[in-house]
Each structure stands twice: as structure tokens, then as C-alpha cells.
Amino acid sequence: MGKTIPSAFLYTMNATEEQADAFHLKDSLAAYEMAAANILGAKPYLFYDCNTLQFKDYSKYESSIFSEEEKRAYHEKHHAEVAEQAYDLGKNLILDAQNL
User: Fold this and answer.
1) pTM (2 decimals)?
2) Can you tell me the distance from the alpha carbon of 29 to that of 68, in angstroms, rounded to the nearest whole number?
């Protein structure tokens, strides 16, 4: 058996978690994740950042499918938590690489 290489898939998306679930986004990405696991010899870490902000200034774009107010409120409420989760994922990748 060859050497394993730790990896991660970090997905950022404008879709809310509910929209991602309704469109089976995670299922549609599973083939890529499985291919990476087969090639690299280890299951990748997965990270989903949903309901992201698309623009700094929504008034410059036609984006009526999303509510700027809801997105900004979500971002304010969850940004620190999401950033911490991403940071922890990075730490885990480093620890995994050091333990090879």
C-alpha cells in the first residue's frame, strides 16, 4: 500500500443549507470525494459554508433570488463559527500530515 495524503474539500456556496439539501448537492459531490479518497488513500475532510455573501454591494447587481438582509444576518450570526471550523479543519490536516 502506498503513502496516504490527507486532503479536504471546502465548499462555499450561495445556497442555504435547506437549498443544498433540496438539490442534493452533497450527493452530487460525493463522486469527486470518493475519487480523491481512492487516489490519495484517505477519506477527505468535508467542509460546507452555505449561504455565503455574493457581493459587498447588492445594489449593483440583480440578485432577487437572495435576500441581502437575510444573508447579512446569517453571516453576522455564523461567520465566527464557520471561520473556527475551517481553522480546525486546517489544523487537522496538518496533524494528519505530521503523523504519516
Assistant:
1) 0.84
2) 27
